[in-house]
Write a structure and sequence with these properties.
It is a single chain. With 238 residues, the protein is α/β, with parallel strands linked by helices. The protein has a domain at 6-21 and 114-236: Aldolase class I (TIM Barrel, Alpha-Beta Barrel). The chain is 36% helix and 15% strand. The protein has helices spanning 41-49, 73-79, 89-94, 99-111, 124-128, 132-141, 167-179, 183-186, 202-206, 223-236, and strands at 6-10, 34-38, 55-56, 83-86, 115-120, 150-153, 190-194, 213-216. The longest helix is centred in the C-terminal third of the chain and has 14 residues, at 223-236. Bound molecules: 2-phosphoglycolic acid. The site of 2-phosphoglycolic acid (PGA) has 13 residues, from strand 8.
């Protein structure tokens, strides 16, 4: 089964990277691979107008209502957005999002015709105490896995730290996550790796059979580095 690799740039609460909207932008779709950018809400419109496949970093499950500071999935869809991150660990931490909130977001995204990229992953202490699979299983089992969704496995201890699991450890978790997916979607669902991906380590991760691309934070803010990571994605499948 060949799954088209997907490399997503999570720009978090940062301004647009240099040249992101230009014709020769490193963030433009390339042949043989899909890319997505996740800018702040403020930069979303200019990314869409520049023709970049664009997602939101969060969407509220309700369509409208009294939720100060939030933007709904319905509004994101109307604005032309195609993707939405659900349950990034920084949102689970900063906004106390629980599994049930993440499921509500993913279901709302699907109802509104958005493609959810759903983040799961264990903390450092959960891995140290060998509960990582149990935690990830809990996070994955509740997801709407019969639908077209993407999962991003992001060990919390690898995000922004420069520390990563070995590609083999990541592969082991990816294969485990895939085993939890119902038969009908098991071979087609894309499972991305995220956490301290760089131009130097990307190829090793993308070369693993169950790693279908990456969710890239810090390194995605540097266009040349992101371009190299995208190339690694192409190379890994050629
Ligand atoms: P990082 O972030 O690449 O900076 O570790 C990844 C993410 O949070 O999605």
């Amino acid at each position: 089964m060949t799954r088209t690799p997907l490399i997503a740039a999570n720009w978090k609460m940062n301004p647009l990277p240099e040249g992101a909207l230009e014709k020769d932008s490193a963030y433009r779709p390339q042949s043989g691979i899909e890319t997505i950018v996740f800018p702040t809400f403020l930069d979303m419109q200019s990314c869409l107008e520049a023709g970049l496949p664009t997602g939101a970093q969060y969407g509220h499950p309700d369509s409208v209502g009294a939720h100060t500071g939030d933007v709904s999935m319905t509004m994101l869809k109307k604005a032309g957005c195609q993707f939405v991150l659900c349950g990034h660990s920084e949102r689970r931490r900063d906004h106390r999002e629980e599994d049930s909130d993440v499921v509500a977001q993913a279901e709302s995204a699907l109802r509104n015709g958005l493609h959810p990229v759903i983040c799961v992953g264990e903390t450092e202490s959960e891995r140290r105490t060998k509960r990582h699979k149990q935690i990830v299983e809990r996070q994955v089992r509740v997801l709407p896995l019969r639908e077209i969704v993407t999962i991003a496995y992001e060990p919390v201890w690898a995000i922004g730290t420069g520390v990563t699991p070995t590609p083999e450890q990541a592969q082991d978790m990816h294969a485990f996550i895939r085993s939890l997916v119902p038969d009908a979607r098991r071979e087609t669902i894309r499972i991305l790796y995220g956490g301290s991906l760089t131009a130097d380590n990307a190829l090793e991760f993308f070369g693993q059979p169950d790693i279908d691309g990456g969710l890239v934070g810090g390194a995605s803010l540097k266009p040349a580095v992101f371009r190299a990571i995208v190339l690694a994605g192409v190379q890994a499948r050629s």
